[in-house]
Design a protein that fits this description.
Number of strands: 2
Strand content: 5-15%
Number of helices: 5
Largest sheet: 2 strands, antiparallel
Order of helices and strands: HEHHEHH
Low-confidence stretches: 123-144
Radius of gyration: 27 Å
Structural class: mainly alpha
Helix content: 55-70%
Shape: rod-shaped
Distance between the termini: 111 Å
Mean pLDDT: 82
Length: 144
């Protein structure tokens, strides 16, 4: 009788230790996955080196971030559509993507694609466009 209690006690202790080890391994794997995703959100490179390949993308009105990411993944513009959706959700371009037809390139990083689809140009290009439009305004005023 007493030996039976000892055997059950050892068995219970062994099972408890194994369960704790499995739990710790699960927590470590989850942490590793979370770190990898977090790291990739901010460091994901372009799919190809320049010059890359142009791909046409159509963004529909009220298109979800996940659907947009899936489309970009299918076109070969991003490695993971879900990762792109997370990047978009956490970026300054969240909610600013405009419906339309876009020509994107496989050498662009996700942020550059978001910028293009939000209708924002690089600051250098934007400055020259504004300067040109201001000059055009003065020319029109002079001709009147």
């Amino acid at each position: 009788m007493r030996s039976r209690k000892v055997v059950f006690g050892i068995l219970r202790g062994t099972i408890s230790i194994l369960l704790v080890l499995l739990l710790l391994i699960g927590i470590a794997k989850a942490g590793e996955s979370a770190y990898e995703i977090g790291y990739r959100i901010f460091t994901e490179p372009a799919m190809e080196e320049e010059p890359g390949h142009d791909k046409r993308v159509y963004v529909e009105e009220d298109m979800s971030e996940i659907a947009l990411g899936r489309q970009l993944e299918e076109k070969g513009l991003v490695d993971s559509g879900m990762l792109f959706a997370l990047q978009l959700r956490l970026s300054a371009y969240h909610g600013k993507i405009k419906a339309g037809d876009y020509l994107l390139n496989t050498s662009q990083e996700a942020t550059e694609m978001m910028q293009a689809m939000a209708g924002e140009e690089d600051s250098e290009e934007g400055d020259t466009d504004e300067a040109d439009s201001e000059e055009g305004d003065t020319d029109e005023a002079d001709s009147e």
